[in-house]
Design goal:
105 residues; mainly alpha; 50% helix; flat
Length: 105
């Protein structure tokens, strides 16, 4: 499940404007790949809230969502390697760090 902190996204846009090495398209995604379950559990932990949602069988997701179920079941594996190769540094490279900053506000 791709995600990015808003601060890193803004910095990425600034990098694209200021850095002559930026050519072509880049993924606006953090370097940490997580799945939906990890996201929910991390969010619950940061908020000090209990979390329990049972796993939904794949065939139920396929019945409910049809072809779109592949997005939920398989996810999207994009990465931030290309932007990092030109020297971009993420301020919030992990979901835990990003959520802690956002929830403190």
């Amino acid at each position: 499940m791709p995600w990015i902190h808003i601060t890193d996204l803004i910095q990425m846009y600034a990098e694209a404007v200021d850095n002559d090495k930026v050519k072509g398209s880049y993924n606006a995604s953090s370097p940490q790949y997580i799945n939906h379950s990890e996201f929910n559990h991390t969010l619950a932990r940061i908020m000090n809230k209990p979390f329990f949602i049972p796993n939904i069988p794949a065939f139920v997701m396929k019945l409910a969502l049809g072809e779109m179920s592949s997005l939920v079941l398989n996810g999207s594996r994009i990465d931030a390697t290309k932007i990092q190769e030109i020297g971009f540094k993420f301020q919030y490279p992990t979901l835990e760090k990003a959520l802690e900053e956002l929830i403190e506000k």
